[in-house]
Amino acid sequence: MLNEQVMAAVLEFRRKRNWEQFHKPKELAAAIAVEASELLEIFQWKSHEEVARLLDSPSRERVEDEIADVVILLSYLCHDLGVDVNAAVRTKLTKNEAKYPVEKSYGNAKKYDE
Predict the structure, then answer these.
(1) For position 89, which CATH number holds?
(2) Domain span at residue 32?
(3) Averaged pLDDT, 71-78
């Protein structure tokens, strides 16, 4: 997800503040949900046109900040649990390919069991 230099900077930021003690898996998962909700709140109740305007304005920085918060927390969680996020994504893609074959899923937003 993050390159080695950025990941090192993120971990150093946390280490300098002695925050590892607060970053247990449950707390990180909860914080990810909170930050994802803050990202969603930016878009809530806006039309597609309003979102497009927002993303083409200085308010885009708010979106980028919330995305960064989610990525930072997810990076901590993956690091602390020893999860190789690239391997996890590849494994999940393989599972999703079985659940959502192209011939049944193309252009269709229904869940695989519907």
Answers:
(1) 1.10.287.1080
(2) 4-105
(3) 98
